[in-house]
Amino acid sequence: MGDDSDEHLLREAGRIATALGRMFPGLCEVVLHDLRDPSHPARVVENGSPGREVGDPAAELARLSDPGQPGVLQNRPSRFPDGRPAKSTSIGIENAAGRRIAALRVDLDVSVLSPVALALSNLVATDAGESPEPQAHARDRDALRRTVERAAAERAATPRALPREAKRELVRRLRADGHFASHDAARTIADLLGVSRATVYNYAR
């Protein structure tokens, strides 16, 4: 009875995986992992990246199978096997007995969307101030803004939505790359990240 009901649950989950993948062709990879079969858990693969096939092992099988882990691991930065950045969500599927028997994983291809997000962000951006800035100064600030937005897009987030440690790492990278040479770089970075200028200097230490 349990095996039959589990199999029915997996078939229904497989239909959902297929439908999701076909709704977003070329944009996201959807994989249903059968956690009852540790050696070949990939049961359904839709929009699979090159080399991904039914029967493939799951890199995070231990985490997905662990009942102590959250039932949903959402919006995590990840990468496809070929290196493209992805935004990943995994959903554990439990049977009537409360045993986690499957996991539905959706990987959104951020490399497709990041340029669009960056272009839109630049399109709506405005510069504060009553007088025109020197041309070189404006170019420096635009370059800094693009760098920050690109770094956030690689993590499938906006600059302000980055976790604190990611913001700290980004600020230190900006300083190492010489972006603090501009006289108001700290203010620009603070505005983009949604923190105070003092916090930016603290992160840069």
Automatic annotation (TrEMBL):
Source organism, top-level taxon: Bacteria
Any Pfam family: HTH_22
Ranges for domain YheO-like: 11-114
All residue ranges annotated as the Transcriptional regulator DauR-like HTH domain in the record: 144-204
Residue numbers spanned by region Disordered: 62-90
Protein name as annotated: PAS domain-containing protein
Source species of the chain: Saccharopolyspora gregorii
